[in-house]
Amino acid sequence: KAGVTQTPRYLIKTRGQQVTLSCSPISGHRSVSWYQQTPGQGLQFLFEYFSETQRNKGNFPGRFSGRQFSNSRSEMNVSTLELGDSALYLCASSLQGGPNYGYTFGSGTRLTVV
Amino acid sequence: DAKTTQPPSMDCAEGRAANLPCNHSTISGNEYVYWYRQIHSQGPQYIIHGLKNNETNEMASLIITEDRKSSTLILPHATLRDTAVYYCIVGSNTGKLIFGQGTTLQVKP
What we know:
The complex is a heterodimer. By secondary structure, chain A is mostly beta strands. Chain A has no helices and eleven strands. In chain A, strands 2, 4, 5, 6, 9, 10 and 11 form a seven-stranded mixed sheet that branches. Chain B has strands at 9-13, 18-23, 32-38, 45-50, 55-56, 61-64, 70-75, 84-91, 103-108. In chain B, strand 3 (32-38) and strand 4 (45-50) form a beta hairpin. By secondary structure, chain B is mostly beta strands. Chain B is built from no helices and nine strands. Chains A and B meet through strand 4, strand 5, strand 9 and strand 10 of A and strand 4 of B.
């Protein structure tokens, strides 16, 4: 079966712009989480969506937002980009997202802000 | 902050078992232990998880001590392709995984 698909794979944006990243979960999966990975901070949780509702949120500024559609596809948006937003953004999906489930990660979108 | 402590790096000979330890002394009763690994430039890969009992799947075995304060991930026959960063995570909400720095496992020929 198809895995978690993230688009685009690579992106270059200018400081001050905004960006939208897309994540298509595994078919049937209803929980989607987003993570940011940087060399300095490692993997950090951004937010999780389940059935179109944000269920968990990490400690990121309001410039980072997301949403989930009825088909479970999810998007995250970063407004007013800063150089420090350059990172690998990872999406992960799970059937239910409960404690007895593992998550499947996508390959990520590498965002470079110049 | 991560609730686990792992050694920053380990080596293992190809074909031998790799035993990766993890301390989680503050784990609470409803928290699971999860293991993921990340091969360079790829997304993390789920390996295994458990609550109290030892678990085994096609990739690895997870041994959890009786007091649940520590665990060991065992890769029974390590190959060069198992070279990766291994993350031990504890939590009761997999929708919000708190990753630490992990253990960099280097499998050597």
